[in-house]
Design brief:
The chain folds into two domains: 225 residues, Nucleotidyltransferase, domain 5 (2-Layer Sandwich); 77 residues, 3-Layer(aba) Sandwich (Aminopeptidase). The protein is built from twelve helices and 13 strands. The protein has 343 residues and is α/β, with parallel strands linked by helices. The strands form four sheets. The protein has a seven-stranded mixed sheet with strand order 1-10-7-2-3-4-11, with helices on both faces. InterPro entries: LytR/CpsA/Psr_CW_biosynth, LytR_CpsA_psr. It comes from Clostridium cavendishii DSM 21758. Belongs to the LytR/CpsA/Psr (LCP) family.
């Protein structure tokens, strides 16, 4: 595989923001979905009436269990993993998973985790050979995606939640906005993206006049986290995390009586194999754990497990890696709480 050239990266800097939702925005919305999976118990008493808009799907639990490694099947009942899919869905289509994560409620080690799996990961998909991870959802929805994750990464997932992207601005506004410390070198670029988001959403987007800690609306916050060309990928990830953490903090401090409204805002864009009882049970588990922080991780990690991304002979970009080594790293992290960055 050949690495993408620096020339191509340089040319990308001159491109104008696209009108479609950026990958960074999608990842943050999916992360919020994960957070809501964790904290939904706060609104448990109201949830029965709030989830009527969620599309419920039935998947075979025994089929999901058959896709698990023998060394995790029937074990680790105190570690619950729920798949989270961010779907770019066209009318009449199943949709393609533009972002794949899973939420872990680890009662054994007292941890809450959100783990992203690179959507370009080169995986084996039942009936479809080797392909990108995100194609599994298009081929067979949440059920095939779960089987693919379990088979390739050694997990014990039996349920999923999927979100149809497009509503991050409204969700942030439903939270009442977020507080963000905007860096000086990000002000100008943020304003460019604010204009872009305002045009997309047909909402007003006031420019940011100065750096520093300030309260941002949905349009402003999404503009901030979309910046791509101002510095580097590490800084962009930091900004995305800033917005995510601000949303998490806002949810944690939101009155229980207001959370059902947020859930109702999300409901029309959600699909899940979880029953309402399941969701309340998950929330109860989190509440009883007393855990307040979420540990985030992205796998595979470039440079470990012989992982590297590049263009294959068919012209498609993939992340390829040592499958057995990565599976072991994933299992060590999720089930034994071993730092995934350990070599």
């Amino acid at each position: 595989m050949e690495k993408r050239s620096e020339k191509n990266r340089s040319n990308n800097k001159n491109k104008k923001p696209k009108k479609k939702m950026k990958k960074s925005t999608k990842i943050i919305l999916l992360s919020l979905l994960g957070i809501l999976v964790f904290v939904v118990g706060f609104g448990g008493f109201y949830l029965w009436n709030m989830t009527s808009g969620i599309k419920k799907t039935d998947i075979s639990k025994s089929d999901m269990e058959s896709s698990m490694d023998n060394n995790v099947k029937g074990k680790y009942s105190d570690i619950i993993n729920i798949a989270l899919f961010g779907v770019d869905r066209r009318a009449g289509d199943t949709g393609r998973s533009d972002a794949t994560m899973f939420a872990t409620i680890d009662k054994k080690h007292g941890k809450l985790k959100l783990t992203s799996i690179m959507r370009d990961s080169y995986v084996s998909i039942d009936g479809h050979g080797m392909d990108k991870l995100n194609h599994a959802y298009a081929f067979g929805g949440g059920a095939l995606s779960i089987k693919t994750i379990n088979q390739n990464f050694g997990l014990n997932i039996t349920d999923y939640v999927a979100v149809d992207f497009g509503e991050l601005v409204n969700i942030i506004d439903a939270l009442g906005g977020v507080d963000i410390d905007v860096m000086k070198n990000a002000v100008s670029e943020t304003n460019k993206y604010i204009d872009d988001v305002a045009k997309e959403t047909k909402k007003t987007g006031a420019h940011i006049s100065a750096p520093g800690m300030q309260h941002l609306t949905g349009v402003q916050a999404v503009g901030y986290c979309r910046i791509r060309y101002n510095d580097n990928d590490f800084a962009r990830t930091d900004r995305q995390r800033d917005v995510l953490v601000a949303m998490f903090n806002k949810i944690k401090t939101t009155s229980p009586t207001k959370l059902p409204g947020i859930i109702k805002e999300l409901s029309p864009y959600l699909e899940t194999s979880l029953s309402t009882t399941d969701m309340i049970g998950l929330g109860t588990d989190v509440l009883q754990s007393g855990i307040g922080n979420i540990q985030q991780q992205i796998l595979p990690i470039e440079g470990l497990d012989n992982c590297k991304g590049g263009i294959a002979s068919n012209g498609v970009f993939y992340f390829k890696y040592d499958k057995d080594a990565l599976k072991k790293r994933m299992q060590n992290y999720i089930f034994e709480d071993i730092d995934p960055k350990n070599k």
